[in-house]
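Question thread 4412

I'm putting together a teaching handout and wanted feedback from people who do this every day. The idea is simple: show students a protein as raw sequence, then show them the C-alpha cells that encode its fold, then repeat with a second protein so they can compare. Below is the first pair exactly as I plan to print it.
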Amino acid sequence: MQKYDSIQVSGAREKNLKAIHIAIPKKRITVFAGVSVSGKSALVFDTIAAESQRQLNETYSSFVRNRLPH
C-alpha cells in the first residue's frame, strides 16, 4: 500500500487506545468491530474525525474560518 493510499494513525492514545498504529485504506469501506469498550469510537470520532476536521479547517483562510459555524 502506497503512503498516500491510506490514512496512517501512529501512537494514538485516547481513552482506551494505547499507542496503536494502523493504516486505513482510502476509497474503501472500512468496518471497525470489537468488544464493548475496546476503543472503536475513540479511534473513529476522537482521533480520525478530529484530525480530518483540523486538516479541513487549515484549507480555509482565517477570514472564512471566523465565519464558519462552530
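The second pair follows. I'd like the answer to focus on this one:
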Amino acid sequence: IIVTNRRAYVAVCLCWILSFLTGLVPMTGWNNYDALGNLSSSREIVCEFTSVIRMDYMVYFNFFVCVVPPLLIMMCLYGEIFRVIRKQLNRRAEATCDGEKYFRKELKLAKSLALVVFLFAVCWLPIHIMNCITLFCPECTPQFASKVGIFMSHVNSALNPLVYAFRMKQFRATLIQIIRRCMACKPIEATVYPTSTVVPNERVDENL
C-alpha cells in the first residue's frame, strides 16, 4: 500500500539527485585547488585523488555525514524487521498456513538485503578508516593498506549483482535472460512469477 511504483521511482530519483549534489561539494571550494596552484609553478603535479580532494572533506563530510548515519539507520531498521518477522513466525509456529510462507519469504528477502548492507560496510569501511588515519596521522598510513582499501571499495560494485543473483530467484532468472540476449543474441522469454504480496489465510496457487 505504501511502496507504490510511483513512490519508488520518486525515492530512487531523490537518492540520485542527493548523491549528485553531494558529489559537487568539492567543486564549491572544498578541495586542494589553492595548494595545487602553488605547486604548479615549481614542479609537475601527480594526478592522484588525494592531490585533488581534501582529506578533511573525505572524513568529516563523506564518512561522518554521508556514510555513518545512513549505515547505522539501516542496521537499526533491519534489526527491527528481523524482530517483527521472527515474532510473526513464532506466533505461527504450530500452524502451517499461507501466512507462515509469506513471512518466511519476507525473512529471506530481508536477509538478502541485510547481506548487501553488510558487504557494503565490509568493503567501504577499510578505505574510510584509512582516510581517518591519513588525516590525523599522515606518517602512520601504509601505502599497501590504502591500495587494498581502494580495491575493496571497487569490489563492492561487483558483489551486489552476485548477491541478488544467488539469493533471489527472480533476479537470477532475469540476469540470465539479459546475459543470453546481450551475449548469445537470443530473445528473452517472458517468465511469470508469483507476486510477493501474498495475503495470509488465502490459498496460494503453487502452479504459478
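Top answer:
Good format. For the second protein you could add a caption like this: The two ends are 23 Å apart (CA to CA). DSSP finds eight helices and no strands in the chain.
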